[in-house]
Each structure stands twice: as structure tokens, then as C-alpha cells.
Design goal:
With 73 residues, the protein is an all-alpha fold. The protein is 55% helix and 0% strand. The chain has a domain of 38 residues.
Length: 73
């Protein structure tokens, strides 16, 4: 699960939206859960990798120190 979120607004046919929300409810899922899964599947299918927001790998201390030292000189 993502730790941070961003809003994605899209336009969709109103009848398609109703059908989609109804199907999601029948499957005990929210529309947001399904859309997030569709996006993950789409990225995976196209070989696009990403690090979920809030799960970034912290920069190693040595690199952080050496970059500060470079800025000072």
C-alpha cells in the first residue's frame, strides 16, 4: 500500500462510471482500489518500475556527507 497519495482526476462517461462503481461494490472493492491495481498492472506490463512514495531508499550517510563537503568547497 502506498504511504503517500496524489489525486488523479479523469473524465468518464457517467453510465460507464455507474457500471464500474456497481461492479466494484459487488466485488467488495472501492473504485480507487481497482484503479490503483489497473495502474500497477499497466506499469508492470510495460516494464516501468517505480518506488512507491514514502518508501524511498534513504541516501547512504557517506554519500550525504561527501555531497555536503563538495558544496562547501
Amino acid at each position: 500500500m502506498e504511504l503517500k497519495t496524489a489525486r488523479l482526476t479523469l473524465l468518464i462517461d457517467p453510465n460507464k462510471k455507474v457500471a464500474f462503481e456497481r461492479l466494484c461494490a459487488e466485488q467488495d472493492l472501492t473504485a480507487s482500489q481497482v484503479v490503483r491495481q489497473l495502474i500497477r498492472d499497466y506499469l508492470d506490463r510495460h516494464g516501468v518500475s517505480y518506488t512507491p512514495a514514502g518508501q524511498e531508499v534513504p541516501e547512504p550517510r557517506a554519500a550525504a556527507t561527501s555531497s555536503k563537503a563538495r558544496r562547501r568547497s
